[in-house]
Amino acid sequence: MESIEEDRETTERERVLSNPEAIVPAAFVSFKTRWGAAVCAQTQQSSNPTLWLTEWAPEPSNVYWDSLAIPYIELTIRRLLMSVALFFLIFFFMVPITFVQSVANIEGIGKAFPFLKNLIHKEVVKSFIQGYLPGMILKVFLLLIPMVIMLMSKIEGFTSFSSLERISAFKYYLFILVNVFLGSIIAGSAFQQLDKFIHESPAQIPKTIGVSIPMKATFFITYVMVDGWASVAAEVLRVGALVVFHLKNTFLVKTEQDREQAMDPGFLDFSTYEPRIQLYFLLGLVYCAITPLLLPFIIVFFSFAYLVFRHQV
Q1: Where does the sequence pass through the membrane (predicted)?
Q2: CA distance 273 to 13
Q3: Which of 11-25, 73-87, 121-135 has the lowest mean pLDDT?
Q4: Which of the pair, 187 or 78, is modelled with greater confidence?
C-alpha cells in the first residue's frame, strides 16, 4: 500500500514539473536566523521594485495557492478595480435598502398593494409587519453579500486564507455600517423629514440626523432579534449541517474516511461573524445614552454568543 502511494506521489510530481503552467513565479525561503528573515522581508531585493517582491510567508496550510502566480502589475490593477467595485456595491446597495425601509410598513404596503388593506390591518399581521418584516427582508438581502465580498478579495490576489478573511471582514463591516446602520437611519427617518432638509440650512442636517437615530431604535431591536438571536440559536441547532451530514452519509459515504469528512463540523466564519459582532457593539454604544431600551437586547445577544462561540474559535 505504501509503495502504491509513493508511486502515485512520484507520478504526480513528475506531471507537475513537466507542466509549464504548474510552475509559479514564487518561492518560499527558509533562514537560519530571524534577523535574516526580517531583513529580507523588509528590504528591496532588486533595482526594479516590481520584479522581485518579498514578504512574510504564511504557514503551509494557510497559503492560498491560486494567487501566487499573479504578476505585480496585474495585482495592482485587480485591487484598484475591486476597490471601485466595492464602492459601487456599498453605495448602490442603498437602493434596495431604501425601498425596504419605505415599503415595509403599513402605509407603504397599503399603497403598493391596495388589495391587501383589509389583511394588513388585522392585529396579528399588523404586529408582524411592524415588528419583524423589515429586519427579515434586510436579512435576506444580506445573505449573499459575504460570499460576494470573499470572491472580490480572492480576485484581489491575497496569498493567505487569513488575509482573505481579515480583508473580507473589514469590507463586510464597511458594507453593513453604511447599509444597515447609516442606510436604515437615513432611508427610514431622514427621508421622512425631507421638508426639513429642504428648508433648513446645511448646519442643521447633523441635528436632523441626530433626531432620526432614536426613531429607528425599534427597527434595530427587531434586527438584533432576527439577525443576532436567531443566528445564535441556529448555531446551537446546526440544522443545515445535520441535514448535509445525513445526505452525505446516505449517498456519498463509502469508507470511514468519507464518514469522517462528512462529520467535519466546519469552522467559525470569521469574515462574517466578526463584522456583525462589531455592528452590535456599535449599536450598543450609539443607543446606550439616547435609547437605553436597546441595551438589554444587545446584552442578551453577547451573553448567548459567548456561551455558544467560546468553544468554536
Answers
A1: 80-99, 132-151, 172-191, 279-309
A2: 39
A3: 121-135
A4: 78
CB 111 within 8 A of CB 156: no
Q: How many CB atoms sit inside 10 A of residue 14's CB?
A: 10
Looking at the chain, the whole-number percentage of residues with pLDDT higher than 70 is: 81
Give the pLDDT mean for 18-43.
Answer: 85
Q: With 60 as the cut, is the pLDDT of residue 1 above it?
A: no
CA separation for the pair 309, 301 (Å, rounded)? 12
Q: Which three cell numbers stand for residue 146?
A: 459575504
The residue type found at 87 is F
Structure-block grid coordinates of residue 50: 516590481
What is d(CA 249, CA 235) in angstroms, rounded to the nearest whole number?
A: 21
Q: Can you give the pTM of this predicted structure?
A: 0.76
Higher-confidence residue of 115 and 147: namely 147
Q: Are 241 and 265 in contact, with CB atoms under 8 Å apart? A: yes
- Amino acid at the residue 276: R
**pLDDT level of residue 151 (50, 70, 90 thresholds):** very high
Residue 29, burial from CB neighbour count under 10 angstroms (0-12, 13-18, 19+): exposed
Residues in CB range of 273: below 8 A, 6 or more apart: 309
Give the separation between CA 256 and CA 261, rounded to whole angstroms. Answer: 9
**Contact at 8 Å (CB) between 212 and 185?**
yes
- Least Cα distance to 294 among 207, 231, 227, 214 occurs for 214
Q: What is the pLDDT of residue 105?
A: 65
DSSP structure class, residue 22:
G
Q: Reduce the DSSP state of residue 265 to 3 states and report it.
A: coil
